Write the structure tokens for this entry.
Amino acid sequence: MILFLSGLIIFFGVHFYSTFRSREADATIVVRLGYSTYMTGYSLLSAAGLTFIVLGYFGMPGSDPIYKVPFEARTLTIICMGLASILIAAAYVPSNHIARALRHPMLIGVSLWAGSHLLSRSEARDLLLFGSFLIFAIVDILVVNRRNMGKQAQVVKPTWRGNALAIAIGLSVFSIFAFWLHVAMFGVAIW
């Protein structure tokens, strides 16, 4: 439990710091440390936090379900995960309509991932894990929207090729997870 909670604190501490840090050019730690040093530290702390989360989660004993999972939740989770995979891919594929329309495809994808898993998993550790990610994603969307209010977004002309690539990558990653990786990594079969 301590490892799991430490991982949550480290991972979300780094991410919430990034969300709420000052964007004033002379007041940021990014300027003082330099961009590459800051990003290296950010990445290492995030990776350490994520490692602690995973190891701690699987090191904790299971608990009784806190609520009854609806029968349809499993199907809904699978559908949401397909959509989440596409959205997360769209965050990295340049020039697609999905990212342009949604503005925060990564955070919306994480919200879908976390929210759908909260529907189908009901142990205390699941609520902590998926609830933390859901809260973070929602807060980050709200803060970024507020920070960027009135600012002109970069205009990149979206293409149908970008859409097709985001969908193909997202569905490919989803398929790999659904048919093989999810059970191999987490011991939970999807089908």
User: Anything to note?
Assistant: Residues 7 and 48 are 7 Å apart (CA to CA).
